[in-house]
Every structure is written in C-alpha cells, then in structure tokens.
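Regression test attached.
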Amino acid sequence: MTRVILLLATLAAFLLPLAWTVLASIGVLPDNSATPPSWKGPPTLEHFAEIGIAEPAFWQELATSTASAVCAAALTVGFSFLGAYGLARSNFSARRMLTQGFLVLASLPVMAYIVPLSDLVRRVHLLDTFAGVVLAESAVTAPLAVFVLHGALTQLPPVWEEAAVLDGAGLARVLGRVVLPLVAPSVAATAIVLFVIDWNLLLVPLVLTSGQVKTVPVAMSDFFTFERELDWPTAAAALVVSLAPLALLVAVFHRLLERFRLGASDGRDIG
Amino acid sequence: MRLTTRDRIVLFAPLAVLLGGWLVLPAVLGLFATFTTYSPFTTTVRFSGFANYAAVVGDPQFGAAIRNIVVFTAVAVPLELAVGFGIAYLLRRPIKGRALWRVLLLAPWLVSPIAAGVMWHFLFGGATGILDFAFGWLGQPEVASPAGDLRLALLAAIAVEVWRVAPFVTFLLLPGLVSIPNERWEEATLAGASWIQQVLHVAIPELRTLLLTVGMLLVGLSFGAFDTILILTGGGPGTATLTPALYSYGRAFQTNDWPVGAASGWLIAGGVIAVGAVYLRLARERPSR
C-alpha cells in the first residue's frame, strides 16, 4: 500500500509540470498576483488556432518532423539489425569489446562531431535537404540500435537458424523467415524508441538546415533565440501538439515497449 | 548460422557506410582540421599545431564551461540514477498494470530537451509559473525565476535535466530488476536483510553491468548538455550555465570561429572517450559473487 502511495506521489510530481502546460494550452492560467493565487480564464481551444498565426509553417514542420523521424528510424533499424546479427553470430575475440564500443559511440554527444559533419554535408550538396537530415539522424542513433539489437539477438538460440540452413536456406531466408519473426517485438520496440529520439533531436537539423527543411525542435529554437518570444498559452499549445504524437505512440504500444532492453538480460516479461 | 565472407559483407556494409560516412569520417577529418587553420570560409590552409587547442583552453569562457559541466555531471548523473533506480525498485514486484505505469512514468522523457527548456522557462517564470503559484499559497512574496539567478541558474538547469532523464533511467533499469531471480530476494529476506541491504547486496551486484551501461549513456548525455540550456538560460546569466557544447556551437556557428568550435567539440569527444575507456574496462570484468 505504501508502495502505491509512493508511486502515485512520484507520478504526480513528474506529471504536474505537464498538467500545468496542458491547462495553459486550453487557456486555464494561474493568477499569481491574487492572494492566495487562483485560476483564471474559461477553457478555450483558440490557442491551438493561434499556433498557425504565430508560426504559419507549424503544421508543415510537424509533417517534416514526422517524416524525417520515420525515415531515420526505419533506416537505422534496418542497417543496425543486419550489423547486430552479423556481430551476434561472429566469433572473434574482440566481439564483446566491439559491442561495448558501440555503446561508447552511442554516448558521444552530437556536438563532438557536428561541426566537421556540417562542412562535409555542405560539400556533398546535402545541406538543407531532407536526405541530409535523415542520413545524419540515422548515423547518430545507429550505435545505440546496434547495442540494443545485439542484446536481443544473442538471446536467440541458434538452433532454429541451423535447422533452416540444413533445409538449404541462405542468409536472406534465414533472416526473413526465421530470425526476424522471432525478434520482431524487440525490433519494433527499438524502432519506437528511435522514433522518439529522432523526433526530439535538435542539433542535427539545426546545423544541417537553413530554412528549406525545418523540424519542430528547430522552429522552437528559432522562436526563442531570435527574440520573437511566443506568449505562454500559444507556446503551451505548440508543446502539447508536438508531444501528443509521441504520447499516443508510446501509450498504444506500451506492451511492446517491454521488449526494449539495454544489453543482454533474460527475457522475462514485466507485465 | 555459419557466416560466409559474402554474408558478412551484406550484413556489415550498410552500417559501415552509414557510420563511416556520417560519423567516423567527419569526426576524424575534424580532428585533423583542428591542427590546421582550416575553415570552410578560408582558401589557404596552414598547419598550426596545437594553436586551436591553446586558444580554447586559454579562453576563460571555456574554463567556466568546463567547471559548469563538471558540477552538472557530478550532481545530475547520480541524482538521475538514484531517482530512476528508486522508481524502478518500487515497480519491482508485480503490480497491476506495471507496463502502463512504466510508460506513464516515462512521460517527461518524451518531452524533447528543447521543449523542456521552453516549458520550464515559463514554469519558472513569475506570472505564469508553478513556483510563484506555490510560494503564493505559502504566503511568500513573488519569487524571481531561478533560471535568471546567478547562483541558482545551474541548479535550475540540473533540476530540469533530472526531471526529464530520471524517467528514462527507470524505463531502462526496470527490465533488469524484474529479471533478478526471486530466490535471490528470498535468500536476502530470510537472512533478515533490510531494504537498504537488499538494494546493496542483491540489486546493485545483479544489475552491475546494466547500471554501468546506463551510467555511461548518462555521462555522455550530460557532457553534451545543450538544447534545454540554450532556451532556459542561453548559457547565462554571465557564464553561470555555459556548457562546452554551447561554447562550441557559439564559436563555430555564431561567431564563425570554425577552428575553435571544432577543437572544443573534440575536447568534448575526448572527455567522453576517457570515460568510455574506464567503462570498457569495468564492463569487461565479470561480476564476482
């Protein structure tokens, strides 16, 4: 019982700032000048309409964010799945070290290499293009994906694959018909987490674009660094709109996300 | 299955091209460039030795950024681990709808770092904020935003980071905690271990590798702290919340001092690689029990 109370208290503390934001987005604002402070304003949806006035391209930016995050997550998962499988079924002495090396690479902040990357992207004429953003985002998140998928694949007993090989199956058949169906939940869970990370990236699209391709985080940074500050209810509405797709995605797939494991651990369900 | 050379090429080539071309190549070219006067805007390139690094290290602003990030990391990472672990520990034993609890508690992590900056800018603020509201109820006079206070700004940035990242730590640790065999807890309970002893002698040893992995990710995240602080304080007031990433970004893209920006970026990489070397050593040791 104490446990449930503690959990509820934690949940309340974590969600209070979000609730405050949601209330502001529908026009319910605190009146801090009154004593004691009270609330003002009837609920309204007009602040959501004001987003489009303050930032005419907002809905376009939302579409760009979604499309680039979907493409980047798909590309990363595909390439990382192949690499992680190769790693999991190879037998060389430095394998463990190499896998952990991917984790160190995953920890490397984007700022460490974005300056020369922006120069390179400019030279291959992909600056301010959708492809440039997607490729860079994929590369940023690939090391984490390799580490996670390698963990899932090493849990998989090789007997199924061996049986398929005896039946004359090649690599493509083994991967498509045997391995992928068995680890599909882990792969899907990884894709969801990568989508969230890609959607929220700021530095990559900020540095690699200059207006043609704009994601929501870049638009948000524009607002505050160029000193044309939004008023709070409109900003709150924009925050709610940009958070909603992620919240929905994670809520719908909450059972699937149980399969997201960092590294190898035995696969007991947590449900 | 037994992989042929052709299989290996098919499996590794796409990843190698992606990571090689978009991460390793720029990082290495960038490293070479930092020992020259290279910049995208100049035509003549001369070898300059450690001049760029000397310029970075000699800059008092960068010194302040290093000091800030050391404090930031030393406070934020242990707090994130402790809070994240605490919540995961509460969810350890079966509870109705545990998977749902897990994602509900993940909500703050879904807020992007930049959105967290925007949000807390207003939540810390006077007229719209949560702090002022709470203090008002307690009968206290108006409080100024801690993000604008010379002494409190860094703490405010740390608080926002912990709020956003601790839930992700719970999300990562919970599957590991749940996988610990029941017998290990039962042994401890029979031996009369308090919950603190259970944490110290069961949970932490069993989760050693996972905790190291999460710790590594958190240190990297902290060393690169950028988005939230960009909006919340912009590095200020003064240099109170300036981080190496903000410094590097400012030099490379705002004052167009490209070589200094690239060199300071590599110093961030150097920090992460140093911590990474320690991590690789620790993660290789098998836990003894």
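Expected vs. actual: identical. Chain B touches chain A through 111 residues (CB under 8 Å).
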